[in-house]
Amino acid sequence: MGIGFFFDTVLINPLTNLFVLLTAVTGSTGAAVILLTIIIRIVTLPLTLKQMHSTRMMAVLAPRMQDIQKRFKDPRRRQEETMRLYKDAGINPLGCFSSMLLQFPILFALYRTFTLTVGEAPEALIRLNERIYPWGLLQSAVPLPGEFLWLHLGRPDPIILPVLVAATTFILQKMTMMPAMDERQRAQNSMMNMLMPLIFGWITISLPSGLGLYYVLSNVIGMVLQYAYVGGGAFNWKGLIGLSQDPVLPRALEVRQRQMDSVEEYTRGQEPVGTAALEETGSGNGANAGRRRRRYANGRRRGRR
Amino acid sequence: MFHMKQRALSLFIGLALLSALVVGCGGAAGTRGWAAPARAGDILLVSTGTRRLDGLNAQTRQQVWRFNDFWHIEDGSARKLRGIYGQPVVSDDGTVFFGDYNGYIYAFRPSEVKFQEFERDSDKPKAASLKLGGPVLGGVTLDPATGLLFVSAGESLYKLQSTQLAAKIANKDLDIEVARLFETGGEIWSQPLLANGNVYISSLDGNMYAIDQATGREVWRFTGERSLASTPALASDTLLVGGFDRRLHAVDLATGERKWSFEATDWVWSRPAIEGNSAYFGDFDGNVYSVNVTTGAATWSLALDKGAVRAAPVLSGGLLVVGTEDGWFVGIEPSSQAIRWQTKVDTAVTADLVVAEDGSVLIAPSSCVSLNDTDERVYYTGLDPATGVLRRALGPVC
Fold first, then answer.
1. Which of A244, A278, B79, B83 could form a disulfide with B33, with the two C-beta atoms 3.0–4.6 Å apart?
2. Pairwise CA distance, residues B394 & B372, whole Å
3. Helix%, strand%, coil% for chain A, nearest 5
4. Bridge-partner residues for A299, per DSSP?
5. B101 to chain A nearest CA, in Å?
């Protein structure tokens, strides 16, 4: 049993059958893509929230990271202190990538789903027959109509969809990004804000429209989640188009400040970063680390009595 | 600082994953085609799944030419062929006509090939192309009596004079009169069948239509339960057509009324082979059936379990020869349903089988295959119906 069989059985076939089912129920492949996107976002919501939290906390811990960078010259010690900081703050640095890593198999599976169900190659229909579960509703729904609005969901859209993918990726990034702390960081932010949407848009040119539509909808849902995560508030349109250095979601600043205050409040009575680590090294730090582990979320410290 | 590194890492991971997606998936959606082989004089026309048409010496199977490498097509957008799905047809003067997934039909004359003149592209013999309204999946049918070409492209059936298209080879600016004879509600994946002054086509809209060849008037329509993709087969006064409703339908040629429907266990996409009062066809569950044309009763059914049967089977040398998606050719004795031989080619068989004048079976598997786990690649073009021994193409076909 290879990884291909596992991938087919666990991801591609269920997604393909779900897509066919949704099309059979709604009568529209476009509506099926919308529902499929919502379902996938709901299923992956815990990971998405974890990623948002981790990303925000990384920003909060950035000053303390700089402090560690200055204080410790030995790379090994620097890494130990960094990991200790993460541990104390209760975050996993890989949590920032968890949602993204999950996106890849989903995107790959969706690519296969769209090429199989509404793909332009007639050969796809033969492959689809092998994957459809033996349920009357699914069997009778094939072949699926590929048209939705101006799109054929199995064929690439060379203009509008890539623009939408790039635009929504850009907006989502701007909503996620916090203000830069210095000029260098601002320049890097600016470069990435442009580069990533352009690359994503360019790649969309050669992919089935169904996948592009999924990505656009997924980005829109991501925007809603991001907005809800910071607790709503005003929307800085000038920041979105680069006329202002303030964040697109001003309330994100308040949230970050609260989180930073919490971290500061907690560490005020503690030893400077690194000292504790020095003292704890080789002294059975498991129990101490357990006592020190704290959670900071939404500006509140949890787990300390 | 780390926050920025993290964002850079995110970008890198995202790009790596998306690159893998594009590279890994790039070839998955290809339209390879499943054109059945055809004869043009002493040349065997085969589409080897490379979006090209190869001309082989019918006797030796040595490659003689490749279309469109050896021809010059004036229309630049027509030069990049995509999948060829319909069987090429050949007129009395040796002109070859076929369509591709891009929606073009082509006309060229194999007899004009002269290798020594190929120093410049413009030195090559010319080929004509004509853009129609959609992918040509069913293919073209030539009426030898009138010279009319009937082409199913996209959702429409077109009619044009083959001599006009052939004349376009010499004069690219020649205007050709093309009539959109009929439009259905779905794509047409079947080759037009000519009989009784009508054209018969099945459509993914679930209907089989009888259309007046001259006027394009709908004479009758037969409605199946689901999409109809197979090319209709004529058995005396009965049309047989298979569908995604898992049935083979028998329809009265004159009235379009259903005579009977035989229920298989999966899609019926293969055009039946007919001999006497029996029709032989396969389904996507890998079963082969023999059905009485008059009553619709099954004479026998045989579970091959060697993949879906999309290719039309043929009868030759007293055996029924069937090709399957898993790459098997099977020789079955129709009277006893006994399997006489079976041969594997390690690539899908989706193109219809054809019986040659000498009784051998012409085949067009989906691709070349490696020979005995070596680097040598071969393409099989035929088999002996008595033994199942395969015959391969010679020359740089693969």
1. B83
2. 17
3. 70, 5, 25
4. none
5. 9
First CA to last CA distance, chain A:
51
Environment class of residue B45 by beta-carbon count within 10 Å: exposed (0-12), middle (13-18) or buried (19+)? buried
Residue of chain A nearest B226, judged by CA positions: A140
Give tens-digit pLDDT for B132-163. Answer: 989 999 999 999 999 999 999 999 999 999 99
Q: Which residues of A286-299 are buried (b: 16+ CB within 10 A; e: fewer)?
A: eeeeeebebebeeb
Strand partners, B199: B194, B211
> Cβ separation of A185 and B4 shorter than 8 Å?
yes
**Tens-place pLDDT, residues A235-273:** 777 777 777 777 777 777 777 777 667 666 666 555 444
Q: Which residues of A touch B266 (CB under 8 A)?
A: 129
Please, what's the b/e burial string for B131-154 (b: 16 or more CB within 10 A of its CB; e: otherwise)?
A: ebebbbbbbbbbeeeebbbbbbbb
State residue A286's pLDDT score. Answer: 40
Closest residue, chain A, to B137 (C-alpha): A122
Contact of B120 with chain A, judged by CB distance below 8 Å, is answered with: no
In angstroms, the CA B158 to CA B183 distance is: 9
The Cα of B9 is separated from the nearest Cα of chain A by a number of Å equal to 9
Which residue in B308, B287, B306 sits closest to B298, CA to CA?
B287
Q: Which of B31, B244, B245 sits opposite A121 (nearest CB)?
A: B31
Nearest CA in chain B to A134: B266
Cβ of A122 within 8 Å of Cβ of B20? The answer is no
Looking at this predicted complex, what is its ipTM? 0.82
Could you tell me which chain A residue has the CA closest to the CA of B34?
Answer: A123
The answer to whether the CB of B197 falls within 8 A of the CB of B189 is no
Non-local (6+) Cβ contacts of A266 within 8 A are: A294, A296, A301, A304
Confidence check: pLDDT of B14 > 90 = no
DSSP per-residue codes, B317-374: TTEEEEE-TTSEEEEEETTTTEEEEEEE-SS---SPPEE-TTSPEE---SS-EESTTS
- Count of alpha carbons within 13 angstroms of residue B319, beta-carbon side: 22
Residues found in chain B: 398
**CA separation for the pair B374, B376 (Å, rounded):** 5
| Chain A CB within 8 Å of residue B28 CB | yes
Which amino acid is residue B195, in one-letter code?
A
Low-confidence ranges of chain A (pLDDT < 50): 271-305
Contacts of B101 in chain A (CB under 8 A): 120
A96 and B29 within 8 Å at the Cβ level: the answer is: no
Selecting from A69, A196, A200 the residue whose C-beta is nearest the C-beta of B1 gives A69
Q: How many Cβ atoms sit within 10 Å of the Cβ of residue B62?
A: 12
The Cα of B80 is separated from the nearest Cα of chain A by a number of Å equal to: 16
Q: Encode burial over B241-266: b for 16+ CB neighbours within 10 A, e otherwise.
A: bbbbbbbbbbbebeebeebbbbebeb
- Give the 3-state secondary structure of residue B68: coil
CA A160 to chain CA centroid, nearest Å: 23
DSSP string computed for B129-194 = EEE-SS---SEEEEETTTTEEEEEETTEEEEEEHHHHHHTTT-TT----EEEEEE-SS---S--EE
Residue pair B312/B349 in contact (Cβ under 8 Å)? The answer is no
Q: Is the peptide bond before A143 cis (omega within 30 degrees of 0)?
A: yes
Give the end-to-end CA distance of chain B in Å, rounded to a whole number. Answer: 54
Question: What domains lie within chain B, and their CATH numbers?
Answer: 270-398 (2.40.128.630)
Residues A37, A221 contacting (CB under 8 angstroms): yes
